[in-house]
Structure formats: structure tokens, C-alpha cells
Amino acid sequence: MLSATVMRRLEALEDISKQGKRINGLFRLMEDQLLWHEAYANIYANKGAITPGVDEVTLDGFSEERVASIIKQLKDGTYHFQPVRRVLLLLRFCRVPEKGS
Questions:
Q1: Residue 6 in contact with residue 32, Cβ under 8 Å?
Q2: 3-class SS at 39?
Q3: N or C: lower Cβ tally within 10 Å for the chain?
Q4: DSSP states of 64-96 as a string?
Q5: pLDDT tens sequence across 29-77
Q6: How do the domains of the chain map onto residue ranges?
Q7: What gap in Å lies between CA 60 and CA 85, rounded to an integer?
């Protein structure tokens, strides 16, 4: 279970971002191991959880060691986020943006 402080901070994120204010302390939140486990519990059953990401890693690779390694890299300032793979989905009811707009 997440601590009361972490829960308060998480609940405040939505309000702060809606107000257009700058969000501080995200790295401190990311250092909480329980937050990682809570996030994993929320997404592991999704169909996309076994789909490899841009780094070819799936959620099957989730472990205490991996979480500890990421948290250590965040604290050291050596963690680098992987780029996101963009996929353009053309849906029947969507307008395709014109070039240059």
C-alpha cells in the first residue's frame, strides 16, 4: 500500500496540471518502489503488456532488480528514457491533417 504522502502527491498531480502549473517532485515519486509495483498491478493484465516496446522489453521482464536498477539510475541522474514509437492510425471518421498545418 502506498504511503499517505505519495497518495496525496499523486492525487494533486491532476489538479496542478489542469491549472497549468509546473509539476515538481516527480523524480522523488518515481523513487518509491511501491509505486512501481502498484503501476505494474494496474497494467499487467492488459493485452498490450506482452507486446515489446521500442526497447524490445515486455512487462514479463518486470522484477525487483529491474525496479531497483531504474530507481538507482534516476537517483544518479543516469537514466535515459527511450524514444516513443509513433504509429499513425487513420480512422474512418478522422480528418488527416494537411501538410504544413
A1: yes
A2: helix
A3: C
A4: HHHHHHHHHHHHHT---PPPPPP-----TTPPP
A5: 888 899 998 888 888 888 878 888 777 778 887 888 989 999 999 999 8
A6: 4-76
A7: 20
